[in-house]
Each structure stands twice: as structure tokens, then as C-alpha cells.
Amino acid sequence: MKAEAPVAQIVLNVAILGCGRWGQNHLRTLSDLRDCGLVNSITVVDPSPVARISATLADEVRENIDGVEADLVIIATPSSFHSSQAKELMAKGYHVLVEKPLGCCEAEAAQVLASAHEHGRVMGVGLLLRFHPAVALAKRMLAKGALGRLESLRFVRRTTRAPPNEGNVIEALGVHAIDLMCHIMSEAEPSAVHVEGDFVEARIALEFPHGIEALIDIGWGSSAECRTVSLIGSNASLKFDLDVHDSAVLISQNKETIVPCEAKHSPLEAELRHIISGIESHKAGLSWIAVPDYGAALRGVRWTERAVQAMPISRPH
After folding, report:
1. Which domains does the chain have, with CATH numbers?
2. Is the pTM higher than 0.85?
3. pLDDT tens per residue, range 58-67
4. Of 180, 185, 239, nearest to 208 (Cα)?
5. 5, 62, 194, 304: least buried by Cβ within 10 Å?
6. Rounded distance, CA 36 to CA 232, Å?
7. How far apart are CA 122 and CA 129, in angstroms?
């Protein structure tokens, strides 16, 4: 059988729609990819003059997307615009990477996914923790039985950043945790969700049919930054800091052992490299696997929506 020819590398033009805090992270990472020849040019599109002035690493800045020549558009605008902008851009022929959330509800997210199929575009969702090297390590250790039977999961994301005026901590921080817990659970669908807290601090309990519970502790305005994930097994536990990309800690019989993990790229760089390779495959007429796949992306929106609905306080009007 003749081997399939490798996909020729295509240098892409990339636009970033929205250059706030997270858009700036994309800009810095794309600048590195431009330096190593994966990206040709970077255009920042933002109606704010301050944002455009601060985009010093961009090749070009624009006030709007009209006439921008780009293969890929990264949508890093406020979340209420994500679904409408994604559909509009794909209808114009752009491939898109949509920062989370994909939509404000499951039905809205489903329309975005349908639009990707309708227009034959590569579309990614910015759930970058799936690309974290320690997550890959954790899944390998689970598969080999190194932790024994998985009993529970823990996710802590506390930030010193002040809560935004109209933000919801579950939609902003919890969506990553919910997706990651399902990913570690072999993409299982939770059976129930329970929530304590409010829009600033919340504790989410996801129940899985296996009898396993994932506890998610998230909050703004904390005294210190904390970003940790723990897998508790019957034989051992694994804990890692999401700010550390090259190792995790194995805890067995009250002994801690540092376990190295392969960290070629940061999660954001790995995510961008993945969607760039997807566009290269698309241009070559080959298939591409989305990470997360569209079913998992829709599940993340569904359970984030259910977690918000389970909050013990009403959403303010």
C-alpha cells in the first residue's frame, strides 16, 4: 500500500479579532510562530485605539475585519460576540479558532458547529488545557494502571484578578475545568452537577456514572494564584500545577516523586500549531481531527450552562 504523502507546510496569514488580555497572549505566541516560519503575517483587529496601539508585535492593525486577508481568524472578543462572529467569519471563508465559550447556550454553540460543516471550514475551540503536557502524562498513567482505580478528581483555579463587572466565574474559569474533567474521564458525560457559591467564587461537583466525583474550586479576587489538578487513585495520586509544563508529582505511600513529562510547547502554542496543521490538511484535501472534537465542545457548553443554572443565586438582570 502506497504511503500517504506528507502535507506540505503552508505559511498562514493570521488575524486576531480582539486584542485584550488573552488576545495579547495569542499575539505573543503567534509572533514566536512567525519567527520559526509557521506564520507569515499577523493582523490585529480591534475597535479600541488603545488595543491597536498596544499590538506592537502585529504586522498590521485594523479597526474592523473588512478586507483583511487571513487564512485563520482567532476570535478573542467578549464572549457574547463569539457565536455570531464565528458564523459570520466562516460564511466569508475564514477558518476560525474561537476562544471559550463557543456560545452562551447549547443551542447557540450547535449553530456554530453546524456553520463549520455548512461552509467546510476548520474550526477550533479554545480549550487549551487539553494540550497541557501533564494532562497527556496523566492520561497515559491512568491507561497503564499506575494510579490504580480512579476514585476522584480535583481542580483548583484561584486568581488574584478582580472579578469583571458583569462576569460569571463558572463561564470564565469553570468551563476549562468542566471540559478537562470530562477529558480525563475518557470523554464521559457527567450524570449530575451541584454548585455552591456565587458569580465570584464557586464550588462545582460533577458526578460521573462510574461513581467518581470531580470537585472544581474556582474564584476571582484570591490572595494568591493557584492552578492545580489532582487525580486520586486507589494506589497512588498525581498532582500537577498548570503553570508547570515539564513535570507532575506522583504521591504513593506518603512519598512524593517528581515525574517528568515531555513539554515541547506551551499549551497555547500547541493549540495554535494544531489548528495550523488542520488548515494545512484542509488545503491539501485531507481530513483533520478537531481537539476537542465537536461533540466534546458541545458537551462543555451544555454542562457549563447546567452548572450556571444550578447556582443557588439568580442571575442578575
Report:
1. 12-126+268-286 (3.40.50.720), 130-266+302-309 (3.30.360.10)
2. yes
3. 999 999 999 9
4. 185
5. 5
6. 40
7. 20
